[in-house]
Amino acid sequence: MYGPMIRYFRRRVLDPVLDLLRQEAKPEKIALSIAWGAVLGIFPVLGITTFLCAGAAVMFRLNMAAIQLANWLVYPLQIVLIVPFIVLGGYLFGAPAAAGDVEHVMNLFHADLASALGYAGERVFHAVLIWLLAIPVVVPLLKITLASVLRKVLEERI
């Protein structure tokens, strides 16, 4: 059962990363690219992470393939984390409790589109602020961890 999944993971994730390492890319640089790709990939707004990753890769001279690979891999996590980011943002910034929000927003959309968009926008803004607060902690931790793992993989495989 796990055979096809392991082959898929190896072909789509492990082999591309090893190819990058074989091209004399430093494990630290690849680790930083993957860390930024993962963090930008969980940005709590759907549909823009590819552009965020591309911009970061160009601006910080990161590896485009590695950052986009990480972005692609964390997409399910992005979906899962949107609600916790919104809830935590509401809690931290004193927004009303999330219970009944869906019904409340639907009623707002029916009654007043501008109010509904403002309410949703405020919630998304709070989620983005929570995401921004996580960056200084998550990126360095991921980079250190991934660099260590990539160095070990590099020693074993190459």
**Structure class:** mainly alpha
Extract low-pLDDT stretches: none
User: Which range best describes the helical content: under 10%, 10-25%, 25-40%, 40-55%, 55-70% or over 70%?
Assistant: over 70%
Could you describe the largest sheet, including whether it forms a barrel? Answer: none
Distance between the termini: 28 Å
How would you explain this protein's 3D organization?
- The structure is a single chain.
- With 158 residues, this protein is an all-alpha fold.
- It has one domain.
- It has helices spanning 2-22, 27-41, 49-59, 64-73, 75-92, 101-111, 113-157.
SSE layout:
Layout: H1 2-22, H2 27-41, H3 49-59, H4 64-73, H5 75-92, H6 101-111, H7 113-157
A few lines on this structure:
The protein is built from 7 helices and no strands. The protein is mainly alpha-helical and 158 residues long. The longest helix is centred in the C-terminal third of the chain and has 45 residues.
Key phrases:
single chain; 158 residues; 83% helix
